[in-house]
UniProtKB/TrEMBL annotation:
Name recorded for this polypeptide: LLM class flavin-dependent oxidoreductase
Gene3D superfamilies registered for this protein in UniProt: 3.30.465.10, 3.40.462.20, Luciferase-like domain (3.20.20.30), Uridine Diphospho-n-acetylenolpyruvylglucosamine Reductase, domain 2 (3.30.43.10)
Domain FAD-binding PCMH-type: 339-513
Family under the similarity heading: Belongs to the oxygen-dependent FAD-linked oxidoreductase family.
GO molecular function: FAD binding; oxidoreductase activity, acting on paired donors, with incorporation or reduction of molecular oxygen
Keywords: FAD, Flavoprotein, Oxidoreductase
Amino acid sequence: MPDYGQELRFGSFLTPTNADPQQPVRVAQVSEQAGLDLVTFQDHPYQPSFLDTWTLLSWVAASTSRITVSGNVLNLPLRQPAVLARSAASLDLLSSGRFALGLGAGGFWDAIEGMGGTRLTPGEGVTALGEAIEIIRGIWDAGNRRPLRVDGRFHAVKGAKRGPAPAHDIPIWLGAYKPRMLRLTGTSADGWLPSLAYLQPGDLQRGNAAIDEAAEKAGRSPAEITRLLNIGPQGDTGRWIEELVRFALDDGISTFIVASDDPTTLQTFGEEVAPAVREVVARERAGRGTVAATARRGTAALAARREEIDYDAVPASLAASAVEPGDRGYADVRHNYLRSGRPGLVLLPSTPAEVAEALGYARAQDVPLGVRSGGHGVSGRSTNDGGVVIDLRKLSAIEPLGGAIGDGRRIRIGAGATWGEVATTLAPLGLAISSGDYGGVGVGGLATTGGIGLLGRAYGLTIDHVRAAEIVTADGRILRASEDEHPDLFWGLRGAGGNLGIVTALEIDAMRLGDVVYSQMVYDATDTAGLLERWGAAVEASPRELTSFLILPPVRPGQQAVAQLMTIFAGDDTAAAITALERLADAGPLLDHKAYVLPYSGVVQPGDRHHQGGGDPVSRTGLVEHLDQATARAFADLARSSAAYFLQVRATGGAAHDLAPDATAYPHRHQNFLLTALGRSHAQLDPVWDAVVAPHTDGLYLSFDTDVRPERLVDAFGANLPRLRQVKRAWDPDNVFRANFPVDPAGH
């Protein structure tokens, strides 16, 4: 039988005895310390001498930091599939992607019936398991907005809400022995998990053949299906190694799980047997020219490939995690927050060197290139149709550097982190970085473009506190840019970063901040222009600690026009906050007001990366110095039109005015407000915006703007544009990075 080329993994199979409840936990921790990859537990819910396996899995996940946990295998007849799906996704989220779902159809039917389960025949058990897998995967498909309906004979859901999405693509492994179960494994599962003690000679070969045939008929590659094996310990370490090497090379087994509760045996297995087996198998595979499993795809995935992309040339370091159309994980990476995408390939590098490899590969394809940090960007430039997307989510480390700097501390942040993760990490340190108003936004995009956030009048723009950037340039070099190192590049990165390279990490000075006062107000917006004018004046008269964003939702027939206000007072001085908020409350008829004292991380919370597009809106933006009468009336006129369905005004200014216009590529240092409108098409939005609002604006905010007509570059960069073109010519003369509000290096 073939070697499927799968990565070798090693684990333990433990007894969940409750005589000493902490003993299985301690043995699981020994498994992790020994270097094993996973720890699994029997699941017999009818056994009173055992701990409940699910509870134990949760406890072990919380008591370890690296190892994957799984049932071996979970008793499906006593675990309702839809609830099991949510439990699995929750544990996967809480453990940062360290859960695998081993499932069994059931076997001890007297005991199952005694616990209230329904006795099934073997054939019925397989049918029920297939229905359960459909339900489980349907619940995990959180981006699908349609209610889940599965009309199964044994398991059914009738309009269940989907979600949450797991932290990673949870594999489903089946404990299978008979032909129908093996075929189900080939068509619907991710792994085959039998026990060697239950197999007869030749069963591994016959099982693999049945799984492979079913997989190929379903359009899958047999190499997509992991072959796991529960084994017993061996007294002779040398013979143990030889046996496992034979199973790997001759029978395609890639995951070996030793059934033992003895810590010494587990240490031997993890520290001696596993490394030796890996070494021998790697050497043999190299000699045989074995193709890695990750490079093998079924006919369905191959049929979805794009002709313009050379998939066989994907660098080896990126092939294992690369996602193509037709892969099950494609739905998780194809779209961004507001933009639908159909990229031909998504690469997921985990180091700057891999980013450089990904960029070199992408340049050779002559297809669109997108770079994604969080995927939440309003302008939608982090996905494309038919091209390559370099997704930086694995570059997400957040670490304080050195000691205190002034009133804060310098933080190194991976470009693939999200601002919710940053806020959560910094809050216990009494620190914060101003970062928009939603925690799902990626660090890389916002911190190279601008950063008009809810702490902005106190802190300034996010880019104002960037002190260095690690960047992969168009020619593949990995550099550090700062005031002292490549200062021209560093200048351009703060405002036009997407034009100059792929930023992989940033060093940013955080501000010292404890709790904030967070306020939510709702106004009667019948007099929209008057409300805007009074609110704008109140904001400008407020102390810098106060930053406020105003939203005008669409007004439906027969409904009252309202405005929603989000405001942060950057500090826990409630008396000063109340005084400032009272001034805002006087801007118009107040319908509702709530205020909270909480950490900044309670406002900007971690968000979901599972994006499904959002109607592909277009957007226009404009910066203004004041919301004077004429400007307020113009924006109110736009609100009354049908050209836009969402309007927002963000207060900027304050500390953002402390820098000179030429200090960064972003030049807008005197305006106090950002106007934003979303519409369904430029043909509908642009004429009204250009005629009504644009005459009152002075500049645009390119993170939110989808109008990339060349003449808009002057609005984006003002007097800094000539210098920016020089930087572009120096660092990206071939215009590789042309997807993000492109600055043409050949322009004048």
